[in-house]
Amino acid sequence: MRKVSREMDSNWALEIMRKAPYITVSFTRPDGTAYGVPLSLASNGDDIWYFHCAPEGDKLDAIAVNPEVCLSAVTKCQLTVGPKDGTFTLQYRSAIAFGKAEVVTDNEEKILALRLISQRFLPKHMDAFEEAVKRSLHRTAVVKVVLSAPPTGKRKQYDKNGDEMKYGRME
What we know:
Helices cover 24% and strands 37% of the residues. The chain has helices spanning 10-19, 58-65, 107-121, 129-136; strands spanning 7-8, 23-28, 34-39, 42-43, 48-53, 68-81, 88-103, 141-147, 152-156. Strands 1, 2, 3, 4, 5, 6, 7, 8 and 9 form a nine-stranded antiparallel beta sheet that branches. The longest helix has 15 residues, at 107-121. The chain starts with 6 loop residues before the first strand and ends in a 15-residue tail after the last strand.
């Protein structure tokens, strides 16, 4: 990380990943080109993340050839004029993690993953979960990403006095 003064610890980065409305997952396609797509992921612990997709397509084709992926999440993204120097800048909170993706084949784990995703994004509609799974499990792929190392976090944020909050300083 070039600006280590903005680096945040892995627990902070995990919180960013858990709060982000989506996480961009970057793959390498079979032809070697990059493919990044924002997805709705949910975690089971700190190092296991799940997403669902169609049972065929670019994501699964990429994973079959190169299962290494990169996860990137951003929250609190706000264009700003630097309070003390008037520069145009961006305040943000971000996290990045690397891992290995694999298609989940066990139905119990698929249902667990879909439950985690649904609980994260549709908690008020869990009464419809069982019926939805019965209807669509056979036509839904689930991918598990196991992180190879804890995520790293980075932040640019100003305090109420207009000073950049560096070195992990919290407010």
